[in-house]
């Protein structure tokens, strides 16, 4: 039977094209890695690499074996995770990704309810834009993300995408903002004050520009862009900036009288999906997290 470590070393050399880099990635010495590859070749009776070229290249038979090796390594990793999950039961950690908008609109209530139902579990939360979250998910550095549907692929063989009820976007300012006294308020009235918001997609900004008859999206000038919704809220409450967000992200501030919603309807929906990998073993607590997401995002 082949040694999984040797197959792992084979895949690393194939990826890097360099024994020294592969050894560094494997956290072993270069002679140890070279010996591992040589042993694998001797056991298989095949030459896997052409060492006469730089960077080192796979031989034709090595190329044929690489995809199968990668599948075996993924299966081994999934098996290891499954055994670990069985041993822990409903204990452990889930790594969850939100966009700035989804974290502010629903992140807190989802995580709070999930924690109450799973007291032995913990969550490591990442906030970033959807493309970055997808990369982390595919690299298996996140277990689940709630991303913007506009930035997700329409179809994917390796992603399971479950829609979440949309939320209508809104436009907000601090309490006592000069615009609140404007009886002839329109979107163009906001432009001199500039905006604060998350890293919104060009598609969304184009739609806003078209909706309000602007020359193009560049007329919507952002003074602050951040994936930290708390920073955006505080900046708007302490300035004349205008916040483009969702009502859920500023619900508490409006209820407390610190912020106000401007009477302009962008008519743009926040479209979210919960996304997981189809090709990896899920933690037993994942099904409960999905159930909580469904319960906490139902239209009120």
UniProtKB/TrEMBL annotation:
PROSITE patterns from the UniProt entry: HTH_LYSR
Where does the chain cross the membrane? none
Which CDD domains does the UniProt entry name for this protein? PBP2_LTTR_substrate
The record lists the organism as: Aequoribacter fuscus
Put simply, this protein is called Putative transcriptional regulator
Query: What lineage is this protein's organism placed in?
Result: Bacteria, Pseudomonadati, Pseudomonadota, Gammaproteobacteria, Cellvibrionales
- InterPro entries reported in the protein's UniProt record: LysR_HTH_N, LysR_subst-bd, WH-like_DNA-bd_sf, WH_DNA-bd_sf
Supply the Pfam families for this chain.
HTH_1, LysR_substrate
Q: Name one GO molecular function term.
A: transcription cis-regulatory region binding
